[in-house]
């Protein structure tokens, strides 16, 4: 798409880019309409657009609107000569590149070619990721919320000193994500050391975390480094951090501030370089209110907070995971190929899974052993088969329901304005009328 308000220049650009299919727009409104309708991979845009052709306010407003509607679009901003400031600002906002006017068409074409290539590669990458089902090593999901969590983990991984708090119900995959984070980080070659603060008695936890010198207490027969020290250069995963007793909270806070530890009974300070990832199913904010968790420690631990959705809020994931677990346990148990019956899949999708992925994993493990033949039924899983027939869920029906909801929603938001609704939905007015007819939606309703 070429966004340019000067008709002569518009024509010249269309001619210069005749290798591409080009759509034109001359102001913000028409550009957004075209963006919605054609989803152009690459956009060139002038910053000076009416009603502010000599300023940049309209151009920047359009740039931001386009990138929030279609973040993958590669936008090349055309600026005035020597207008470095606006060029840098545009790239800072997410523009792909900038070019000073007047431009040489051959040079701009090279940049456009590159933008197309990048767009295609990113598309392919997204497609491959979706196809393999592996959003992050060890993490299976197709749910948008969970995929977003994975993207956040990927981003945070490269900031190798930032502490991360993973919050979510039991069994949602906090440890899997912590391991994924470690594997993607520059610390991947070093150790990933996990410790469950709830599983170790308070009296032993300090020794476990900080280590001890020989003779520090009865039974301390030899010098022993703690988990923090063992994780040096790597990642320390503190699971169930909400269960850390108060005195140890103070000690952990001191470590996070100073980055040195002292073993129990030791005299020297040992510097340790670790990234700390912690997790809990508890509500830390509430623990802080009741005085059970230190607020200052929370802010040290939770530089980045990642909320993990429970399995019941990830539509489709339960059956995706169940199919994968069936394959894994069938081959581990030497049962060849096994599959889930239709009623089993329906029952899995209908169940609420209070214990999340762990509960599902255990349920499938047991069912694979219990199954009479190579089919795992709802009964093997110990779940009631819901009445809902599988045929109810065909794609056409789902698509139609989604289309109907979108049309109705947009129409009510634009107060029945057909032209505006068609624009937002990226369809022509006749198409919108067809859709309304088909779904029996009235303009006024
Ligand atoms: N998205 C996923 N894909 C594949 N396996 C998963 C996924 N999420 C969790 N699992 C598996 O489910 C089990 C529980 O996951 P994990 O131990 O990471 O949960 P958790 O949130 O740390 O649980 P807890 O709070 O009880 O410690 C593990 O066996 C893990 O391998």
UniProtKB/TrEMBL annotation:
Q: Locate the Sigma-54 factor interaction domain: which residues?
A: 139-369
Q: Which residues form the Response regulatory domain?
A: 1-116
Q: Which residues carry this modification: 4-aspartylphosphate?
A: 46
Q: Which GO molecular function annotation, any one, does this entry have?
A: ATP binding
Extract the signal peptide range. Answer: none
Supply the alphabetized keyword list.
ATP-binding, DNA-binding, Nucleotide-binding, Phosphoprotein, Transcription, Transcription regulation
Q: What is this protein called?
A: PEP-CTERM-box response regulator transcription factor
Q: Which organism is it from?
A: Nitrogeniibacter mangrovi
State the organism's lineage: Bacteria, Pseudomonadati, Pseudomonadota, Betaproteobacteria, Rhodocyclales
């Amino acid at each position: 798409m070429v966004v340019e308000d000067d008709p002569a220049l518009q024509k010249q650009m269309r001619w210069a880019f005749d290798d591409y299919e080009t759509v034109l727009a001359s102001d913000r409104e028409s550009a957004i309409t075209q963006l919605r309708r054609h989803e152009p991979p690459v956009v060139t845009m002038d910053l000076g657009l009416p009603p502010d052709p000599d300023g940049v306010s309209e151009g920047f407003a359009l740039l931001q609107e386009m990138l929030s509607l279609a973040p993958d679009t590669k936008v090349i901003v055309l600026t005035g000569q020597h207008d470095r400031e606006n060029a840098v600002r545009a790239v800072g906002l997410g523009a792909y590149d900038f070019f000073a006017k007047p431009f040489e068409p051959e040079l701009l074409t090279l940049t456009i070619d590159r933008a197309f290539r990048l767009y295609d590669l990113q598309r392919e990458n997204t497609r491959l990721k979706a196809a393999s089902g592996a959003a992050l090593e060890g993490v299976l999901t197709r749910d948008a919320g969970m995929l977003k969590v994975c993207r956040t983990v990927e981003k945070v991984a490269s900031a190798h000193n930032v502490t991360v708090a993973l919050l979510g119900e039991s069994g949602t995959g906090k440890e899997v994500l912590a391991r994924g984070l470690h594997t993607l980080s520059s610390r991947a070659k070093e150790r990933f050391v996990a410790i469950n603060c709830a599983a170790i008695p308070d009296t032993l936890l300090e020794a476990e975390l900080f280590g001890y010198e020989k003779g520090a207490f009865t039974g301390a027969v030899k010098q022993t480094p703690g988990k923090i020290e063992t994780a040096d250069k790597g990642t320390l995963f503190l699971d169930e951090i909400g269960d850390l007793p108060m005195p140890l909270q103070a000690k952990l806070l001191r470590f996070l501030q100073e980055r040195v530890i002292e073993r129990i009974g030791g005299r020297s300070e040992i510097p340790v370089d670790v990234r700390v990832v912690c997790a809990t199913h508890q509500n830390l904010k509430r623990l802080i209110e009741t005085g059970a968790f230190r607020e200052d420690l929370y802010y040290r631990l939770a530089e980045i907070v990642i909320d993990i959705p429970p399995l019941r809020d990830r539509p489709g994931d339960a059956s995706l995971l169940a199919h994968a677990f069936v394959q894994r346990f069938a081959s581990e148990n030497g049962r060849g190929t096994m599959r889930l019956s239709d009623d089993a899949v329906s029952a899995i999708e209908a169940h609420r899974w209070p214990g999340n992925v762990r509960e599902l994993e255990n349920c499938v493990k047991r069912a694979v052993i219990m199954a009479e033949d190579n089919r795992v039924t709802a009964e093997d899983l110990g779940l009631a088969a819901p009445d809902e027939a599988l045929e109810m869920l065909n794609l056409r029906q789902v698509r139609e329901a989604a289309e109907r909801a979108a049309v109705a929603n947009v129409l009510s938001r634009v107060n029945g304005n057909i032209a505006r609704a068609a624009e937002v939905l990226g369809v022509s007015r006749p198409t919108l009328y067809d859709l309304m007819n088909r779904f029996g939606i009235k303009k006024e309703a």
